Amino acid sequence: MVDEEEIIRVAELMKIDLEEHGEHVSRVKKMLEYFDILDQIDLSSEEITAQQKLLNELRKDEFIPNDKKLIESLKNFREHYVRAPKMN
Amino acid sequence: MNLNTSILKYIEDVKSGIFTVEEFTAETLQRIKDVDGDVHAYLSLNDSVLNDAKLIDQKIASGEKIGQCYGFPISIKDNICITGTKTTCASKILENFIAPYTATVINRLQNEDAVITGKTNLDEFAMGLTTEFSAFGPTKNPWNLDYVPGGSSGGSAASVAANECLASLGSDTGGSVRNPASFCSVVGLKPTYGLISRYGLISYANSIEQIGPMTKTVKDSAFLLNVIAGQDANDDTTINNDNVNYLEDIEDGIEGKKIGIIKEMTTSDGLSSEVSTATKDAIGDFESLGASCEEVTLPTIPYTVAAYYTITSTEAGSNLARYDNIRYGYELESEGYEYNSYISKSRAKFGPEVTRRIILGGFVPSAGHAGKYFLKALKVKSKLISEINKAFEKFDYLISPTAPVQPFKFGEKIDDPVTLMLLDYNTVTANLTGKPAISVPYRVINGLPIGMQIMANSLNEKLLFQSAYALESKTNLPEVPL
Amino acid sequence: MTKIGLEIHCQLTKLESKLFCSCKANYREFEPNHNICPVCMGLPGSLPRLNQKAVESATSIALALTCDTPEKIAFFRKNYFYPDLPKNFQITQLNVYGDMSVGGEGYVSVEDKKIKIRRIQLEEDPGRIIYEGASERTKITLVDYNRAGTPLVEIVTDPDFESPRQVRVFLNILSDLLENLGVAEPGLEGAMRADGNVSIEGGNKVEIKNIGSFHDLEKALHFEITRQQSLFERDIEIAQETRHWDDRRKITVSSRSKEEDQDYRYFLENDIPWVKIDQSTRDRLKENMPESISSKKERYIEKFDIAPQVADIIASDRYYSKLFENAYSDNNAKDIANLITTDVIGFIDTKEKQQNSKITSKHLSDLVDAINSKTITRNSAKVALQEIVKSGKDTKFVLDEMDLGQVSDSSEIDTIISKIFEDEKQAVIDAKERPETVNFLVGKVMQKTKGKADPAKTLELIKSKLNQ
Ligand SMILES: [Zn+2]
User: How far is CA B80 from CA B94, B208, B354, C309, in A?
Assistant: First the structure.
């Protein structure tokens, strides 16, 4: 059983304010309950894999300056610094 | 001038001077003005589209070297970046985001002289199957405006179906190209993972998604893939395709080929009787083309939708973390806010489906739950890959209907999350396994389209197009009533 | 018993570009936010492109520290929100699907103790918060992203250290090793940082973070050990927690942040395929690796019969050892080594002087040749060295210009000796009675000739004159 309290706690960690999205909890819960189907399949012999590449296929170590104006196309900057809200 | 034409026919006509690029573009623009108020395929238009067309006419007139696209008009899903233009992902959080760089696929199109008409609608951040989750209103199905066009590349599919362009680029994470292609009666390809560069495609679930062409014909799909496919230094996940020409031998047919009919996708509870009947007809057509068809079972399929949503929400939760409205985003003065409350306040702009997937994405891979959800999902993926590879030892193709149902009315399914998820039942397998899959328009029943899905083994797009072309040649579909 | 473990972060400052993009790895020379691109700013749609040389450098470090190196490496995302983190996740390495970080277990000997390296991982540095608005009056935080994406190697040890002094010895060994490998400049501000964890007998483990330099690390460790001991003596439980080093007050303070509650949701970074590093690649890296300091020292002692103290000095300094390696031939190695440790070091004893010095290996071999062929005296060599370090002029030119050629012509020396015998009558008498005082007379000759007289010849001539 999925605990609704926990969904709310996770939402907070994900910086999602549920005060404006309260109705989502039950819907997320329904989706999670559907995922229980994953308990019914035997996966004991499966391993996790991924795409692979050779070392020499990687990017070469070269400095290529980027367009200096990138910072100006962003918002919230002042005297070259990006402004963020104060930390607690 | 007939706007309901293929790219290949268009190029012939421009070459032989039947019309100029500018004339065709102007006519297309007029069509957009006439119908897009109803269809709402586009989120924004390219202001300089006529000028872009004119420049290509000048190139042609001066005998300068001309790219192979000859200025055909193409629309782009609004989650692909073009320098200096808005790229919104149909989200309020990126409503004013101007991309400072251009996606590789766009560079390749422009180098070959394609003309971009504008950016098309989608479910917010490509999460959805109907475009109802677009923050800027849904796209309507050109076949019947009361019905959904499919999604998430619904705007792209509708723009092609409604003759508001000749082709479009969509993106496919779990069926987002093929599903709307099926619903709008256009050809939609999800290529092998890594065949097309994702550089400049705004990530939703990066481990399984691909950009894909959406076109009126199978040959156009092959033509467009020729232009945009291939390794890219800006995307480490792209793979070498040896510059295959996908148009070559496309008419070779499928005589003697072996086709597996995926049992789980043709007998599921959710399958409508119309789709079921159409599938049987398609099997008959494949056999009449000289292929042998046989049922095949992939027992892991019933678990794929859960695995798919677990993996995609995990990746989405991480990929969308960057939208904290600090470095870019919309106007919200940071002064006076504390960091956490500022971010939460900013992220309240995410729409409902994105919000839910982000919460899921925080839940399923968390330390306490990864064992139950996320790691299992990855193993389902591994198991499915083994199964499908085994199937491809025996079969050249695996087929199923693209979607278990025909287009439905707005609002019909949006309130039931599980029903919505199951609409992906036939399409997610290609994404989880990285295999190429194509949706081919096959029937129009009760005025609503049905598409057939064909899958092939990795990097076998050429073989895939041969079967798709063969099936297409067996159909005789009506024109869109718009 | 005190147990200390370390987490060391070392920037790969010798690389040209960042870990996942082509911006400059050395961010220090730029104006704020002028060393950024769509990739390191985490703009929507950008993708990381792994730097081959960064993987090679990190693997070299792992090999040099005798760590296991896996066949395949993988990258993971560490998810958390922070203003200095453009994507709000950090790309790093983990070993959850088997050993998949650049380095596994290895050992470093510190005096008689073996310190276990637990793992080595390659990861990206975040940006820098220049100004943190923490108080009521300050309303915003300012961030510079120039550093974001700089290649960083994290080295994690077991809690095998028993004292802050051992930690210092280890860090010196490690700094020398990294510098010798040519992958890092530990002296550069912020290029090498370390966090520590401390526990005393019967107490919980306490992590200490936010330590700016190795110097502060030692202070922080001392402070923390004393703090824990005093708690223990008063029977107060030592809480398992993370503490921050307060640089201003020079104390550790309990962190307000709920670091323990963080769930980083680690999972594979699929934008970067797993990288295969085969045996031949590892062999190549090993082959190209500069010789370690200890094996260099061994070689100097065994092959050239150089005194251990001398070999130690030259082997452990990259500047001296480079001078030496390029100067010696089989028959003058020992002389060159001695010239470096007795004279060169006197003129070039700081990093800054090393940078400004104009001396080359050719100067050294020329000088030793001149001494051995008795063209100049040892003393003149020293005088010449001082000038060469400053000007870098050719050795022969300096010797001529300063008139340092040795006087070995007997009649010339004889004339000088005769004059000294007249001036120093008493010394001549003394020398006749007590031969051991003859050096005084030799010294006078040297003084007169400004050290240019051949000392052996001078002694011979004086002795024969005394016997007349
Ligand atoms: Zn960069």
Answer: 13, 16, 18, 65
Mean pLDDT in residue range C398-427: 82
CB crowding B459-473: b at 16 or more within 10 Å, else e: bbbbbbbbbbbbbbe
Q: Does the residue B232 lie in any domain?
A: yes
Pair C221, C242 in one domain = yes
* pLDDT per residue as tens digits for the range C65-116: 999 999 999 999 999 999 999 999 999 998 887 889 999 999 998 888 899 9
Amino acid C196 reads G
- The model's confidence at residue C261, banded by pLDDT at 50, 70 and 90, is low
CB atoms B347 and A6 under 8 Å = no
Q: Is there a single domain that holds both residue C310 and residue C364?
A: yes
Neighbours of A70 (CB within 10 A): 18
- The answer to whether A38 contacts B334, with C-beta atoms less than 8 Å apart, is no
Q: Among B401-405, B446-450, B465-469, C237-241, which is the least confidently predicted range?
A: C237-241
CB contact under 8 A, B421 and A76: no
* B100 to chain A, closest Cα gap in Å: 7
Look at chain C and report how many structural domains it folds into: 3
For the whole prediction, is pTM greater than 0.80?
yes
Q: How many domains does chain A have?
A: 1
> CA of A5 to nearest chain B CA: how many angstroms apart?
12
Chain C from 68 to 87: CB within 8 A of any B CB? 77, 79, 81, 83, 86-87
Q: Report the residue from C15, C97, C133 with minimal CB separation from A87.
A: C133
Contact A55 C277 (CB under 8 A): yes
The whole-chain average pLDDT of chain C stands at: 89
Q: What is the CA(C395)–ligand 1 centre distance, in A?
A: 48
Do C299 and C187 belong together in one domain? no
Spatial separation of the C-alpha atoms in residues C148 and C155, rounded to whole Å: 19
Cα B358 to Cα B234: distance, rounded to the nearest angstrom? 27
